[in-house]
Amino acid sequence: MREPAWRIFAAEYNDSQHVLKATEEKTPSYVLTPLGAKVNRMFIVGVLTDIEDIGTEGIRRRARISDPTGIHVVYAETFNPEAAGVLSDMEIPSYAAIVGKARIYEPEEGMLYLSTRAEVARKSTIDTRNQWIIEACRGTLLRINAMKDAMNMSNPTPRQLRELGYPSFIAEGVTEALKMYSDIDIDTYEELLREALSFITSEEKEMKKDYAAEEGTLLQIIGELEGEEGALWDAVAEEAVKRGMAREVMEEVIILLMEKGMVYEPQLGKLKLV
């Protein structure tokens, strides 16, 4: 049976530190997230911010797909040239949808690098991205609630969680995660949901003033510093402070510019003009 494709935020997937390894031939391995998602396949929709040709060890392309919580690293490999071709033909930035399998690289015990191996790649739209965010939020909230209930039990079991109405795959994953993760920060994931939903709600963040001047200043700074690979976030902040802008204002305006589609992150920590 083919594994379902999880709608899961980059922050939760990238926080994962444990793998449930296959014990029998043709049995899948799973990435176990801190909230108990047992991930073998994923469906990702976000902004394609970077694509590069690797051309080594069977890999043709490496892409970065941004969702509201972080970056999914996606590899398109030689045996699937169609996905690699679609990604390479897409403009940056643009909306992309990826169906793929969890890609696990564990060079030594305790060192885990996670990414996604693309099976299917397609151009997407903002409406599809917004619907994906809603679905990912629903799934995350279900796991958060299951985790809270399990934490209130003295010795939680999948059966107890099923009796509370949770599906088997959630009940099993949550109890496994509680055994393998010593400190699960529920508050962080609840805040993650609020931030993700803020991308698609009609309520705009309250602004203390009209930031038109600050927007112009930051666009100028990024243009001066971006070069080929993008301007370092810290360098932009340092220059903005020199020009009399408070750091917290700079951070708020950068987010505003990204939401308007005027600035994007080709790599985490770097900024470029669209």
The CATH topology label of the largest domain is OB fold (Dihydrolipoamide Acetyltransferase, E2P)
Low-confidence runs: 202-208
Task: Look at the structure and name the CATH superfamily of the largest domain.
Answer: Nucleic acid-binding proteins
Q: Write down the secondary-structure element order.
A: EHEEEEEEHEEHHHHHEHHEE
Coarse morphology: globular
Summing up helix and strand content along with how strands pair, one would put the structural category as alpha+beta
CATH class of the largest domain: Mainly Beta
Number of separate strands: 12
Q: How big is the Rg?
A: 20 Å
* Straight-line distance between termini: 42 Å
Q: How would a crystallographer describe the biggest sheet?
A: 5 strands, mixed, barrel
Question: What is the strand arrangement across the widest sheet?
Answer: 5-6-7-9-8
Number of helix segments? 9
Provide the helix percentage. Answer: 25-40%
Number of domains: 3
Relative strand content? 25-35%
Explain what you see.
The chain has 274 residues and is an alpha+beta fold. It folds into 3 domains: 5-124, OB fold (Dihydrolipoamide Acetyltransferase, E2P), CATH 2.40.50.140; 132-198; 212-273, Arc Repressor Mutant, subunit A, CATH 1.10.10. Helix content is 40%, strand content 29%. The strands form 3 sheets. A 5-stranded mixed β-barrel has the order 5-6-7-9-8. It is globular, with a radius of gyration of 20 Å. Residues 202-208 have low confidence and may be disordered.
What attributes characterize this protein structure?
alpha+beta; three-stranded antiparallel β-sheet; 274 residues; single chain; OB fold (Dihydrolipoamide Acetyltransferase, E2P); 40% helix; 12 strands
